[in-house]
């Protein structure tokens, strides 16, 4: 009897254990996820010192209905997105979209993510993008338009550069024709170019001091630099920092905007200031595909050009601030700022003089019969500006 009771108890316990094992286990409630941290506010670029464009006093009213057609445009800039020029580009695009009531949307592609610097002109002409930032030096397409960036012309100011170029375009149609399926939205002079050197070289006051130097520079200087045993390189902006940092080049012949905005000041030790106008002035601006522009309705074209002149015309204030910031940083780093005497400045201009005749002869040999006339017109305009 006891044995029967024991067997029965064992069976009951065994069945209970089996049923318990088959039951769905109780899962502890998952802890509530930690709240995501608030996104950090977007920080301005380290090298942006200009002020944001002021908001319009009377914003454009938003349309009651979304636009029937949106013109989507692509613009490309070989420079990085964190510098002052890129900031103005984004403001310009936003202003056009707002002022057209959303009928235009512009996307910017930076840092050669769409077109490499050397492919900019051909890419825009072919319609790979609708527009782009364009710098005239080192570009093979606008050979006659290079007249405005010849070194050593004595161009007195950026404003003079801009005004004289517009007058040349209006007077000499072959300059406009050279743009082909592109056209200049806005082109303006850059600040004067000076010589900036790393500690791998020595201070320079006159051209002969450059013997043995390898530096980035407007390629129009190349032949004349060779006469003093110096070499010119034409690197892309994305290569500037690395080339200087690794001693592939020891100098940069350019304006303070590039030195400061691309973080090159920290790599420099000496800055040779060749007067207010420097050894020359490069040209920067924006080109656009003619077909892309022609597809825009007339009222949008007007908004486009008004915004272009407004935002890119801010360079007269922007460039001063950026140059001052670059010079201040150089002084803080203990760099040596070398201000040349008038006699020393003239030696740099004298070094450039043969470039003018060489350039004229080359263009005439290519069939540009009015090269000297255009050059003489420009030099006369420069002389009148200086009066």
Write up this protein.
With 387 residues, the protein is an alpha/beta fold. The protein has a single domain, classed as D-Maltodextrin-Binding Protein, domain 2, CATH 3.40.190. The protein is 41% helix and 15% strand. The strands form two sheets. It has a six-stranded mixed sheet with strand order 7-6-8-5-9-11. A five-stranded mixed sheet has the order 2-1-3-10-4. Strand 6, helix 6 and strand 7 (231-233) form a beta-alpha-beta unit. Helix 2 runs antiparallel to helix 10 (298-312). The longest helix is centred in the C-terminal third of the chain and has 24 residues, at 342-365. The protein is globular, with a radius of gyration of 31 Å. Residues 1-44 have low confidence and may be disordered.
Which class do the helix and strand fractions yield? alpha/beta
CATH architecture: 3-Layer(aba) Sandwich
Oligomer: single chain
Could you name the ranges where pLDDT drops below 50 across 5 or more consecutive residues? 1-44
Helix content: 40-55%
Produce a short descriptive summary:
This protein is α/β, with parallel strands linked by helices. Helix content is 41%, strand content 15%.
Compile the SSE list and pairings:
Blueprint (H helix, E strand, L loop, with lengths): L1 H21 L48 E6 L7 H16 L4 E6 L10 H6 L5 E5 L22 H14 L1 H5 L4 E11 L1 E4 L16 E3 L5 H5 L4 E3 L3 H9 L5 E4 L1 H6 L8 E4 L7 E9 H5 L3 H15 L2 H18 L3 E4 L2 H24 L5 H16 L1
Parallel strand pairs: 1-2, 1-3, 6-7, 6-8, 9-11
Antiparallel strand pairs: 3-10, 4-10, 5-8, 5-9
Helix pairs in contact: 2-10, 4-13
